[in-house]
Design a protein that fits this description.
It contains seven helices and twelve strands. The chain is of the alpha+beta class. It has a single domain, classed as endopeptidase fold (from Nostoc punctiforme). Strands 1, 2, 3, 4, 5 and 6 form a six-stranded antiparallel beta sheet that branches. Strands 7-11 form a two-stranded parallel sheet.
């Protein structure tokens, strides 16, 4: 079995997560990519979680073993995340896996990004977060968007609305250096059941 999933993580009750939820105006404060590669015949597994976050050391990123992530992360333990399979042809798994690995290798977490933004309606921004001018950095939702974009551009070329959504978000980043938020990423793509299984 070879599959790729996207996990939208809901915030908990601690003060920091409550502040993030309030300012993003969404229950979803984080999002991760999960790759599942299992050879049940030979008992081999290579299941990973790709995690970009402020608290993941100097580079702000961590590649977990799936089993460790599921046991140690409250939102997984409490079963409050929303997880979707990203539908790709199984024979294309390694193309997407290679893209994920290369991106993870080359992009560190943007520790200069601003979750607080003075906008038309005051403090906070539910759709986009201001990034730093350094385009070699990323955040969790931008990383996951890039994976979605790679999949859509390569395996969903005939889906006009899906391609339009992807390019709209990409152009917004290019023009304004703003990352899509986890909640907005969820809202844009969750109804595209051709992609989100």
């Amino acid at each position: 079995m070879k599959k790729i999933f996207i996990s939208f993580c809901r915030g908990g009750d601690n003060i920091i997560e409550q502040v993030i939820k309030t300012n993003l105006k969404s229950d979803f404060i984080h999002v991760e990519i999960i790759t599942v590669e299992q050879d049940t015949e030979n008992g081999l597994r290579n299941d990973r979680v790709y995690d970009y976050a402020e608290n993941n050391g100097k580079d702000g990123k961590k590649k977990w073993f799936l089993e460790d992530r599921l046991k140690s992360t409250k939102s997984y333990v409490d079963n409050i995340n929303e997880i979707f399979e990203l539908k790709i042809p199984e024979e294309k798994f390694y193309e997407v896996y290679k893209f994920i690995e290369n991106y993870y290798k080359n992009y560190n977490y943007d520790k200069a990004m601003k979750i607080y933004k003075i906008g038309d309606l005051g403090l906070g921004n539910k759709e986009f977060i201001k990034g730093s001018p350094d385009r070699t950095t990323t955040i969790c939702s931008h990383f996951c968007f890039k994976v979605i974009r790679f999949i859509v551009r390569n395996y969903y070329k005939d889906y006009d609305l899906l391609n339009y959504r992807v390019e709209e978000i990409e152009n917004h980043y290019r023009e304004k250096l703003e990352y899509i938020t986890p909640g907005h990423l969820y809202n844009v793509f969750r109804k595209h059941t051709e992609l989100f299984g």
